[in-house]
Each structure stands twice: as structure tokens, then as C-alpha cells.
Amino acid sequence: MNYRKKIALTMSAITGFCLLFASVARGADPDTTTTAAPQQSTNAAPASAEEAKKPVQKAVELGSVNVQGLRASLSASLTTKRNADAIVDAVTATDIGKFPTTNVADALALIPGVTLDHNIPATERVSVDGLDPSLNVSLLDGHPVAQAMWLFGDQPNRGFNFSLLPSELVGKIEVYKSPEARMVEGSLGGLIVMHTIDPLDVKDGTLRGTVGYNYNDMVSQGKPTASGFYSIQNGDGTFGIDISAQHYEQLSGRQGMENYGYTPVSAIAASNPTIQAEVTAGTLKGTDLMPNELSAANFQQTEKRDNVFSNIQYRTSNFESVVSLMYQDDNLDNTNQSTYAWAGLRPGGITSLGNVVNGIVTTGTSLADNKGTALPNGNTDGACIGDTAGACAQKAITLSDNFARGSDIKTQGVDWRTKFSGYDWYITTQVGISDSTNDISQVLKEIAYGGSFSWNLNQGFSFLDPSTANNPQYWADYGWGGNHSLLPYSARDTYGQIDYTKDLDGFFNNIQVGFRYGGHWESQAEYVYGGFTPKTLNQIGYGGLSDLSGLSSLGLSGSMVSHVQTGGFGAIMGANPLSATANYPNNPDANSYFDNTWNVIQENTAAYVQSDFSQGNVHGNIGLRVVSAKITAQGFNVPGDCQSTDNLKCTFPSGYGWVTYNNTHVNVLPAINVADEVTQDVVIRGAASETVAYAPYNQLAPYFEANDTVLTAAAGNPNLKPYESINFDGSAEWYFQPEAVLAGSLFYKKVNNYIVQSATTQSRINGSWTLPGYITNTGQAYINSGQCTAAGVCNYSVTQPVDGGGAKVKGFAVSYQQSFAQTGFGLRANYTYSDATTDSGGALPYNSKNSYSLSPFYEQGPFTASIDYSWRSSYLAGGYVAGAPATDVDSYKDLSASFTYAINDMLAINLSGLNLQNSVYHTYIGNPTELGSEYVTGRQYLASLSFKLN
């Protein structure tokens, strides 16, 4: 669709909205609205330096009841929503402080249309109106914040990682569900604007702070936390400085069961006469799928976050300047142990498969000696003691991958905003830069046990000789000692903007024009070294038997709950595993470097024109934004002979080596928002717009991130086109009492290009093939099963983004909020329906068709309490390891509660509980029987004492 047709389509819809609202306005008496003192519009301008100074409008007071605390914050949120031109929801600072939140994402959970993904203990992904979190734009005081990746192999995600931003930093959050031309481009879902507190907006000498302790019942440990805010200003209130600081510590974990893909029974039968006989007899079908391995997964993380933020403000009658400084150090060191009985690696040891449900084999047995004799036997189940050479050649094998990861994100930034005001005009500017780096490191020690096991898809694996399996003498790294990886990751945002507004008389209140430049640079390099000296578990550092309460709560087997483990982070990452390594670091993995080293630069240049209008009860804005995005992606293109030699010094022929891809995209984005105060208590809104969004930065890179152990991979695509969407939004809001609203909204998005994940099988050189010990152990098993050639060319299951054609998102949301007179009780509730599909009938990632939340609360005298319950239906999400197929997440529920008692005007005690039901995060691959993973993260409890002065 060309630009002229697109503009004509949108403008025809705009004309319809104008006619609709004009006719409604003519039928309303403009004098029936409640008049209040003139004030500046609360419609913030996130694309500019400060809130836009708008012409005088009528601000509607929500009532004369004197409320404080939670009710006051709910009232302020409704005021923002009611006075906005666009469709907006808000959360205020007191609101954040009263609800049980550890980061900004949790504070958004009760907004209609906002859903959270709980794949990890902290919430990093937020969806708006059922769209992928990568399709939101999140701004802090109107500007982006650079964020380095926090986890080795994390899923691509352009969206904001809210788990890294403390709620104490934020004064107010606004979620714009319909855009305005003046706003930063890049969002299909919602524009999330977070505002910090300016020093001249609070009293001189304001001092607030909190000290607390948080505890997770699954890891049975807790950590302290503390935060503070102080603001000071001069005597005439023209200059002020505030500073906020936080120290936060948290022990968290994720425990559960994972499965790394499925294998057709026909592939097993090809090398196993027993299974072939079952297929011939019709007991099994060749098309039935067997889980490759069931893993007992145990992720543990200790987070230590320190951040400092300061606003320096100067203001006179016609000039204002705010300089913001931020620094954050977030240490996220973690360990992950995956112990998995791998039936698919050595199919010759499989003696039985059965209980097929929906084409999925759900039970099986693998014997180490494959004699079919009763166990235990005199040969201790065929297992060998300290088999560091892999000489036993057992026909059943259980592996334990032990990852220790160092992760320390350092983020700093400076932002400068100004406003110059004249008689009927003003100019705002904003410039700034932020940097984020993380020198991620990872050590993998893989150990093995060669004993018999059975498995059940509902309960996991069970060792047939537990006494032997639980003896550390029988565990060793069987020839391949693991590897050491370094992944330096960097991100940088630079931006500059200037806006000019001229007030007008008449229907159009002003004319606004602006220009913005935004540049983003993101890069990574990967260095992998092998050649660790083979060691036994005792030499690595035995940590005793595990006792995983999370797996016990999932009803998993005794062997899943209790099995051998290493001594943890110190044993894996510490000096001992490397000091006795003769070859380290003399075996660099060149293919890992070539496949996973890349740069992506995106430069957006945008200009806009917008005008606000009002007539009687009708107000709104109309505008046009033009944006040019230049995307430069760089990475390696490596010929096959260089891959096979796995040599960093390989000479590249012409056309290979470090290559650059350039793409430029120009989009014209019209937008209109209309609001009509039909009566004193009812507001109707309509909006039409075109929007553009871009693929995650690392999806645009020419990379190939492989997991050579399970033969999966994720790849990038530098030629992806941007998402383009035509959007229609409408809402009706009834403010029937002070602090009360009943609202409904509709949304429809026609996406002309939606990026989807394509799953293919690709033959490539195995990057670990030349590493010492790999062929003898893992590689030879793949050769025997036909998945790799003797030269190391293997069949990888590859997930890669492609332009997927059109998609539609349509739905509605209903929300209700009310405080019940003077009883102290109140209720917030909302429900969202979102139906999203591609034109080919596929699902859109992170789209739940149904979601709702309920939040009853009580506030009377010194007591404040709330219970928050949310639920979302199943949805499609990304794979759980690099290149794993996309999985469906089952319906998820979340229950939290908080209680506050104000001792006096200065001190208050706060108690909160998160994830009180210890909900299960369950994924499957298309078929609910086809398990992907299931996790629990434990209940979190927070106790704190807060104080405030002045």
C-alpha cells in the first residue's frame, strides 16, 4: 500500500470521527460541565522536554472529599485519564508505594489491557492490548534508557526491561494506548512514559526513605533493601536539587522441568530393533514423538542493585532547565543446573516406550547395559567410577549442565531539558545520552552418569539404581570438560529534540512543530574457549544432594527432586576449575565468535506538525509525523571451509568476512484524538492513527546462536521490514462518583507487516566439533543417530524471524473503580478481550485472548490493605533456549497482597506478599500434551519501615 493510499484511508477515518463527535457536541450544552480554575493540561508530552504548555482548558474535579494515601493516588490517576486528549491510563507515585511492587512492571499490572510475562522471577516483559512487549516504547522523562542484555542467551526483546528499574525512582507512569503525532514513534502496543520527581514540585527539605527485608520461601533466604529521597531548594523557589538512591538485594530462584525438543519414533527405531518391532506390531507409530530428555532445572540468582538518580532544576517565569543524572549498577550473577536423562542421545539403550497420548510418548526406559536384567545388578547398573575419558560407552546417560554466569549491568546517563516561554509561544529542547554495558561471562561444567533410568512426562526421570546415581564417585565430565564464554554487550542511546508551539485563537488552540533525532547502537561479541582438563564431580566440588522444594510442589519424582549437584557458583566459576586446565585458553571456538559477534545501529530522524483543538465540550488534537529510519547491521559471513576448520585466522575470500547491511525505511504517520465531554460525568473518545515499530535489535543482526549440545539455534535477519499498522481506538468513561469510573474501550489494529518466527532445519558445521572430547562423547552419538556427519555437519532446528505478512488485533477492555462512601472499602477491576491472528491464521506472540484483574482495597485511619489478583489465558511466547521452538504458555494467575499501618505522620510499617499461590508457569509446543517446560518461582514476602519528613 503506497503512502497516498494509506494517508487517504486514515484521513477518511479521521473525518468520520470528527463528524461523529461534532454531531454529539452540537447536542450537548457546554454550560452543563463543572467549571474549575484554569490549569495546565495533564496531557504530558513524552516526546518533548517538558509537559506541553497547552491553552487553558476546563479541568474536571473528581469531588470535594478530602482523601489521602491510596485513595488520593487513585483519584490523581483518574484526573490524568479524564483530562487527557488521548486514551490514557496512569499510576501515581502513592499508588506505586501502596501496592506490593519491587519494580515498575508490577505497578502496571492493574491497568486495563496490560499483562505481564512471568518467565523469570522478576518481571521484564509487559504487553499492552495483547501485543508483543517488543512493540511498546518506554521512556523515562521523555527519553529512552539504554539497556544491556542481562542473561547469556536471553530472548530477543526490544521492549524495556522493567525488572532493572526500581519503583522508588518513579513519580508517575502513563500508558498511552492511542498515539499523538508529537510522540516518539516505534510503538504498536502502548507508549509507557515514566516521570521522575522534580525538586521544585515538592517542599524544600523533603526527606523520605524505606528500609526493609525481602524473603523467598523457595530459596528459604532473604536480603535487605533500603532507599531514600531528599530534595532541597533555594529561598525563592527558583533552584532545586533532589537525589534518590536505592540499595536492593534479592535471592530468587526458578525450579521446574524442561524438555529440549522431540524426536519421531521412526528415528529411534532406525537404530533400535526393540522399538522397530513395536512399530512393526503397531504398538507405536513412526510419527509418534518422544521427548528427547526431561531436565530437572534449578536457576538461582543473587541480585544486588545500587542506583542513584538526581534532578537539578532551575525555573523562572519564562525559562526552565532540568538536568537529570543517573547511575545504576545491577549485579545479577546466577547459576543454573539442568540435570537431564537423555534418552534421545543414545537410542540404542531404550528398552521400552509407551502410553502414547495425542501422538506423544509419555513413558520410557533406558538401560545402561541393555541386557534387560533386573536392577540393581552386580555390575552396579553398568555405571563406571570417575569415567573422565568416556570409556564405558554406556547405553544410557544422564547429563548435568552446570552454568555459572557473571552478569553486572552498569548504566549511566545524562539528560537536559529546557523550556523558553514567550507571550503566546514556547520552545522546548531535550538532549541526552545513556550507556549500558555488561561484560557477561559464563563457565559450563558438564558431568555425566552412565546408569539406567525410566521417565514419565508428568513426573520426570527416575534412576533405577538410586544409591549408585546419588554417589558422586560415578559422576564425571566424561572427556568434554565444558567451556568458558565471554559476551561483552553494549548499548547506547543518543537523542536530541526541539519543539515549537504557538498559541492560536479559535477552534485550533495552537500549532506545534518539532524535529527529533534518535540514535541507538547495540553490539555484542562472543568468545568461547574449550579444553578444560576432564574432572570428576569430587574434583570440581561436590555440593551434596539437591532438595528442590519447587520440584516437589510440582509432583515430580524423587530423582528429580534429589540428585547430585556441584558446589555452586564458586565451584564452577571459581579458580579451581580453570587453574588445573592444561589447554585453557588455547582452544578458542572461532565459529562461536563469527556467528555471535555483531553491531546494529539505528538512526531515526523525525519531524511532526500537530494542532490541539477545542470547541465547547469537544477537544483533541490532529497531526502528522514523518520518520526516516536508517538501520545498519554488521556481522560475519563465513564460508563453509572456514567453518569446518574453526580457525580465527582463516582467510576470507571476496564477499565474505565482516559484512554490512543497510536499509532505510520512511513512514508517514497521521494521528487524531477526539474527546467529547457529553455530560458532566461522561467522556467519549475516538482515535485513528498509523504507527510503525521495528524488530528487536539482535533480530536485525546477521547472527547464528547455536546450542551444540541439543542442536538448536536462533538466527537473525538483517533484511526485516518494520511493522506497520493502521489503528482505530474508542472509549467511553462514566465518572459516576468521586474516585469512581466505569469505562469501556475498543481497539482495532491492521498490521501490514508482522514479523513471525520461522522454524526450519538447517545443516551447518557444529561449532564444538573440534573441541577436545566433544566427538568422542556427544558427537559420536549424533553420528550414530544420523543427525551429524563424521565431518561435523549437523542438522540444527533453527528459529529465525521473517516478514510474516498481515495481522489483525481487535478487542475491548472494561474497567471499574469505586471507593464505597466512607466505609474505607473500594474495588478496582478490569477485563480485556484481545483477538489477534496473522492473515495465515497463526497466533501472535504474547497475546492472551482473555485477561482480568481484581483488586479490593481498604483504607481507613492508619490502616491500608489491598488484595490484587490477575489472570490471563494461554498465549504464544518465545522458546526457552536458543533456537528452541516457540512455546505456548498456559493460563497464568497471580495473587498478591499488601498491608500498611501508619504509626504516625512520619513512620509506617509495610507488609507485602507476592505470588502467594506460587503459580506454575507451564509451556507446551502446540499440543498441551507436548510439554515444553514448567516452573515455579516461590512466594516472596517483603517487610519494610518507611519514614517521611516535611
Account of the 3D structure:
With 950 residues, the protein is mostly beta strands. The protein folds into two domains: 708 residues, Maltoporin, Chain A; 162 residues, no CATH class. The protein is built from 15 helices and 48 strands. The protein has a 30-stranded antiparallel beta sheet that branches. Strands 1-5-6-4 form a four-stranded mixed beta sheet. The N terminus is likely disordered.
Task: Describe the secondary structure blueprint for this structure.
Layout: H1 3-26, H2 69-83, E1 88-92, H3 93-98, H4 104-107, E2 114-117, E3 125-128, E4 137-140, E5 172-176, E6 191-195, E7 207-216, E8 221-233, E9 239-259, E10 262-264, H5 265-269, H6 273-281, E11 289-291, E12 293-315, E13 319-331, E14 334-342, E15 350-357, E16 360-366, E17 398-406, E18 408-421, E19 425-449, E20 453-456, E21 460-463, H7 466-469, E22 483-503, E23 510-524, E24 527-530, H8 537-540, E25 542-545, H9 549-553, H10 558-561, E26 564-566, H11 569-573, H12 575-579, E27 587-588, H13 590-596, E28 598-615, E29 618-637, H14 640-645, E30 657-677, E31 682-693, E32 704-707, E33 712-715, E34 723-734, E35 741-753, E36 755-765, H15 775-784, E37 793-803, E38 807-819, E39 825-838, E40 850-860, E41 863-872, E42 875-877, E43 887-889, E44 892-902, E45 907-914, E46 921-925, E47 927-936, E48 940-949
Parallel strand pairs: 4-6, 33-37
Antiparallel strand pairs: 1-5, 2-3, 5-6, 7-8, 7-48, 8-9, 9-12, 9-47, 10-11, 12-13, 12-14, 13-18, 14-17, 15-16, 16-20, 17-19, 18-19, 19-22, 20-21, 22-23, 22-24, 23-28, 24-27, 25-26, 28-29, 29-30, 30-31, 31-34, 32-33, 34-35, 35-38, 36-37, 38-39, 39-40, 40-41, 41-44, 42-43, 43-46, 44-45, 45-48, ...
